[in-house]
Specification:
Strand content: 35-45%
Largest sheet: 3 strands, antiparallel
Number of helices: 3
Order of helices and strands: EEEHEEHHE
Shape: globular
CATH superfamily of the largest domain: K homology (KH) domain
Strand order of the largest sheet: 1-2-3
CATH class of the largest domain: Alpha Beta
Structural class: alpha+beta
Protein name: OsmC family protein
Organism: Photobacterium aquimaris
Pfam families: OsmC
Number of strands: 6
């Protein structure tokens, strides 16, 4: 896997993945685009959401929606590393089994999500979920 990031102007950068997709990054706190640290949170949310959706589909759950809300705390002093993050999943569907949703969410953060597993080495990660019946 490879990527590259190119400076555009001021603190604006464009990142390009080896698959050919591009994203704008803003080093000035996200005025023009997500900051690199915001993208880390989005990566954790995206990676874990893939696990949750595919896991519930594999368990024959009638999932119609999945959203993860991520909140994080950072150190005050530089480097401003994340110290804690919570991923709250809102899973929507028909006749969803609470035990299955609970297990799939936990498994994602504890076993499968590469981004969360890397973050978990230095960040206190927690998770929660709610089920919304469609």
């Amino acid at each position: 896997m490879q990527s590259r990031v190119k400076w555009v102007e001021n603190m604006t950068f464009v990142g390009q993945s080896s698959s050919g997709h591009s994203i704008v990054l803003d080093g000035n706190g996200g005025d023009k685009a997500p900051s690199p640290m915001e993208l880390v949170l989005m990566a954790a949310g995206g990676c874990s959401s893939v696990d949750v959706v595919s896991g519930l589909q594999d368990l024959q759950q009638q999932i119609t929606g999945c959203e993860v809300q991520i909140s994080a705390e950072r150190r005050e002093q530089a480097p401003r590393l994340f110290t804690a993050a919570t991923l709250h999943f809102v899973v929507t569907g028909h006749d969803l089994n609470d035990d299955k949703v609970s297990q799939v969410v936990a498994d994602s953060l504890e076993k499968y999500c590469s981004v969360c597993l890397m973050l978990g080495k230095g960040v206190e990660l927690s998770h929660s979920y709610e089920i919304v019946m469609a």
